[in-house]
Amino acid sequence: MLIVTCPWCGQREVTEFGYGGEAHIARPENPEQLSDEEWGDYVFFRKNPRGVHYERWVHTHGCRRWFNAVRHTVTDEFFGSYKPGEAPPTVPVSKG
Amino acid sequence: MTQINRLSEGGRIDRGKPLQFIFNGRPYTGFQGDTLASALLANNEHLVGRSLKYHRPRGVFSAGAEEPNALVQLEEGPRTEPNMRATQIELYRSLRAASQNCWPNVRFDIGAVNSWLSRLLPAGFYNKTFMWPPSLWMTYEKYIRKVTGLGESPVDRDPDRYEHRHVHCDVLIVGGGPAGIAAALAAGRSGARVIFVDEQPEFGGCLLSDNQRIDDNPAMEWVRRSMEELENLEEATVLPRTTATGYFDYNYLTALERVTDHLPPGRGDHLPRQRLWRIRAQRVVLAAGSIERPLVFADNDRPGVMLAGAVRSYINRYAVLPGEDIVVLTNNDSAYQTSLDAHLHGARVEVVDIRPRPEGQLVEKVRQAGIPLHTGSAITGVHYRKGVEGVDVMRLNDEGSAVRGSSNRIDCSVIAVSGGFTPTVHLFGQSRGKLLYNDDIGAFVPGDCHATNPNRSAGACRGSFDLGDCLNQGFEAGAAAAGEAGFRTSGPVALKTERMEQGAFRALWTIPCDHPVGKGKKKHFHELQNDATVGDIMLAVREGYKNVEHLKRYTTTGMGTDQGKTSNLNALGVLSELRATAVDRIGTTTFRPPYTPLTFGAIAGQHSRELFLQKRKTPMHPWHERNGAIYEDVGDWKRPRYFPRAGEDMHVAVQRECKMARKGIGILDATTLGKIDIQGPDASKLLNMVYTNAWSKLPVGRCRYGVMLNEHGMIFDDGVSSRVGENHFHMTTTTGGAARVLSWLEEWLQTEWPGMRVYCTSTTEQWAVASINGPNSRDLLSELTELPLDSENFPFMTWQDAEVAGVPARIFRISFTGELAFEINVPACYGLYVWETLMEHGEKYDICPYGTESMHVLRAEKGFIIAGQDTDGSVTPYDLDMNWIVSKKKDFFGRRSLDRSDTSKPGRKQLVGLLTEDPNEVLPEGAHVVAELKDTPPMPTLGHVSSGYMSPNLGRSIAMAVIYDGKNRKDEKVNVRLMNGRTVKCRVTDYVFYDKKGVRARA
Ligand SMILES: [Zn+2]
Q1: Which terminus, N or C, of chain A has the lesser number of Cβ atoms within 10 Å?
Q2: H or E segment at B553?
Q3: CA distance B54 to chain A (A)
Q4: B312-349 per-position pLDDT tens digit
Q5: pTM
């Protein structure tokens, strides 16, 4: 069972959190001007890497706040959590 | 014949405390300190059960958690428990146990007499059977279960209590042998918070069974002093009878403590029966020991065949000599110690060693003791009638691939076998650690541990079997673990032990016999619990199941309750021989928790019965209780489903409630409806994004219905929201969607528009809501408020603040029934009072409380959808023919998706009404609508029925359905196929059945 670090509350059990999928996907400013394909990219397509993943979490049973984290999808190592708007932490080269 | 195998002295049993117990209906006596297995062996009972498949007689094989054979049904009635390992059941007064897999009894067994099962159940049986029509499997399963039967589950409610404990520690040490104790001492002395678990009642591990010495004293003296020291450390928790069962990510482990299982049932007083520890450890030291492997020789499953280490354990720990004449079969030196110990206690011992030239200190001792030694030889057959009577021994050729010469019979009653030791790497494997194959011991040992699960292995579980090495590794691991957890540790401790020089072990995965292995009468069992033989592995390989994971499932090797603790490695070895591939290239199967089975009770802990799920109750709940409500679970809420009057069933009650609501007044507890208070200058901007229609220009005091889409353009919730002030809205959601909608709003506000000035607060539990519906509802309400309620002063789809029954209230004139209706919101603390006052004043109007069932019928009569019932995540507002609710002038979530080719194409599944030809036929929800009937399924489906009720106000059944091109099918005839094969003829209509113009709500 993972331990997730909330940037506001600290380390907590994963059962306190909700998972929000890939991070840093901005909602398009003008959806009307996008082609079906571009809009489809935004709605449906995600990276799903085997390796380092920038992703969103929400501390549902805690402060209820959203944040981002960097996790290795195979080993489940976390390389840091950061608040929305903050820059992601650097990931050790060996792990990338 | 009481305890004829009991030695007159020694052992760790208490001869002053004899215990009577019953096995298979017969009385026996054992001693405090016995296990059920040791007590049975003391009474010379080798036959304890029958095997799963072939119903061959089986006996006690081991002395621990690895036991594959001696599985018993423990106790009777509600406390009965199947598949209990007799080797781990601590004997207590009046214990009752019985063999499994035996009918009519263990000595005379129908299955074995007919032996028909062996023909019915070859390797791959499950595999092959599952490929047959599934209906046949059902037939076989019933039959097979009856004869094979893995014991019986209790039928009655478990009378015992269980609990969970959640704890953190610096260092968790698993395994209480010499390595574990040393690790606990090293970590404990540093002041680290230590948890130290061992599955046995006494700490000491192998030292309990072997007469070893530490610092010139009996090793158990060191154990006693060490445990005393640990018990006195403030930060150390010592847990005997506790099995670490699972190792999960981030050093999260579960451990089952059998708190009172060693006492007669029900004698635990205030204590729970078992406690499941959930431990988060900074560092873990694994000192789990090792498990002896059997050798796979002909008819190696006979009762009386035992692991050599187990024989030693029974002699030294339990003072039981399992037999007077013992043949030891081995490929390594350790079994020589068994020979010596048995010899010392008066047994006649002979040793058969498959190694041509065994050498080592123990071998020398055996030679000096005059114990006959047959080197380069193997057992090729077992003489068995009511017990083992002897073995045939033949010489092996140099490669060990065949026997030669003539056979030599040795009479004996016990065969002690050792095929080497397998480190117990189960937990390490579960921790995602890397396993390495070690040729010297013919087994896997821990390599690097996984990044998120820092742990260390010490002692036998790391492949080190010398006592001195175990102690050193333990001290080292304990100190390093505590150091990494931030504690200062002292230097190494030197203890004096005697090092035994041992000869090399010889890997020979199958012991040949006088006929080809896998053919003829003799069976080579590599897996005892599931009755799998080398012949089965050969068959699997012949049929192409060469991958170890395939082999496992094909032969069911390792799939028993023992998870193949004694058999997996032998299976790998045999497979490696057959495939001529090195064992490390074959790999292992995945180690899965639990290490040994746990009870459902322990898994559930306190979370059972009324504590399983919390119940959410509205303030009006006490009234519902008093008035005989039948409840429906909606999320965690207990909502009244209907209020039956004397003699009414649900159907009759609902029909009455629906009629009364439209004729006079019906009252519904609508408290559970989700309510979100939305405030801030950007509140209407937010609503504009989450709803499909426009909200900025909604005047204060007005209410509006809205649907919410996800970015796919699909409806996920709906409800009425009202403008309380310029920057203030009162949003309502479905009962089940309340939390989801709030999360949805928060997600966007926090991640996409952190600059938006708006706050969302759940107020679901702050407001109690009574919804009164029906032509008399205005008259009733006017008795309790000064507020003018006529349509001019209080029009439909508006709200007003007022006092109701002297209580501050927010009244919404909105309607989910299509009747004249008022939703009276009051602070939750007044909910019950206002409800009771409404009921009191409503009596003269024949007010009728109704529940969710009538709510559903009433809304369906009006064609109001239920999000999540008539929509399923694939329905757009257009599919509901609700184009009017979709604004063309603004963006909102899902807006762009409505123009995608698939979402906007004609002919999608759309919501329609269905009227059955027979007005009394109610369509079941989920039934499929088909255009073209065929004799047998499949038939192309048009869609499914989403709602179906008997409508008392229309005097006929009504239904809603989601079907392809529904909008263009009005008046078409379609068929609904039921599960029982019957067909119901229907006509497609629009889905508003009652008061189509909507005049009643505006009355
Ligand atoms: Zn938090």
Answers
A1: C
A2: helix B548-555
A3: 41
A4: 999 999 999 999 999 999 999 999 999 999 999 999 99
A5: 0.91
